[in-house]
Amino acid sequence: MAAFNEHLAERIDRYIESLFVPADPALTANIEKAGAAGLPPINVTANQGKFLYILARIAGARRILEIGTLGGYSTTWLARALPPEGRLISLELDEVHARTARENLASAGVEAVTEIRVGAAADTLTAMIQAGEAPFDFVFIDADKCGYLKYLGLVMQLSKTGTVIVADNVIRNGAVLDEDPKDADDRGARDYNAAVAANPRLESIALPMYKNKLDGIAISRVVA
Ligand code: SAH
Ligand code: DHB
Ligand code: MG
After folding, report:
1. What is the residue with the minimal CA distance to atom 8 of ligand 2?
2. Residues forming a β-bridge with 221
3. What are the residues facing 202 on neighbouring strands?
């Protein structure tokens, strides 16, 4: 893999954060509580959280769906983008993650607009479709990467024209350049990128982003 200047990327990331993402006690407490509960530090960065917030605001999102809650860090950013009568449903497999996230969301003052549903995301999404859940305006996919393609198919059934679908970790330090990735998560991300690119119901782009290494997100808009 070609060299990448991590030192410069880190300095730029810190520069952007110092300009655009002021220190926030609720978000700092979220990370501390997640660490104390033994959750892995795989939440989005502060800059990515602000980016998600801005995207959801631009989309005018009133109903947000998240797949992969962890300790509720990205959940907090997205919940803050909602109007008071808005709603965010976040799906999480792990009971401990969900419990930690609920405490964090309450501390951040966003518990009234957020709900965490525990279970395998594919099962929860299927149940939501069968229950006739109203479509979402904004979706953030950030759970197991090998499930992304399946989640996309289900999420499309919970979408309408204009729904924005964002997926994290779709570059994987360039592992997605491999035509035949051996790692199931690398393959999942590569297959997801190919699927959104080829889907006539979506207009999409992927954006490299720095997070410890070079990763990135895919952004799609449902056309019809
Ligand atoms: N969005 C979070 C990070 C999520 S990390 C943030 O940025 O703050 C990925 C999460 O997906 C983990 O909490 C993991 O337990 C959860 N997860 C993994 N497999 C899952 C599945 N099949 N269904 C639902 N959640 C899953
Ligand atoms: C990792 C990072 C992520 O953003 C994620 O959603 C899952 C795992 C990681 O660095 O391992
Ligand atoms: Mg992620």
Report:
1. 42
2. 164, 203
3. 222
CB half-sphere exposure, 177, CA atoms < 13 A? 8
Query: pTM (2 decimals)?
Result: 0.98
> pLDDT by residue (tens digit) across 44-97?
999 999 999 999 999 999 999 999 999 999 999 999 999 999 999 999 999 999
Edge-to-edge strand order for the sheet containing 164-168? 114-118, 87-92, 63-67, 138-141, 164-168, 213-222, 202-211
Residue nearest to atom 2 of ligand 2 (CA): 42
Task: Tell me, rounded to whole angstroms, the distance of Cα 109 from its chain centroid.
Answer: 20
User: How far, in Å, from the CA of 143 to the mean position of ligand 2?
Assistant: 9
By three-state DSSP, how is residue 7 classified?
A: helix
Which ligand sits nearest to residue 45's alpha carbon?
Answer: 1
Residue 142 Cα: closest atom of ligand 2? 6
Q: Which residues pair with 208 in a beta bridge?
A: 216
pLDDT in tens, 141-197: 999 999 999 999 999 999 999 999 999 999 999 999 999 999 999 999 999 999 999
Element (H, E) at 186: helix 184-198
Three-state secondary-structure class, residue 73 = helix
Residue 44 alpha carbon to ligand 2 centre in Å: 8
Within 10 angstroms of residue 216's Cβ, the number of other Cβ atoms is 21
Q: Under a CB-based contact definition with an 8 Å cutoff, are residues 174 and 198 in contact?
A: no
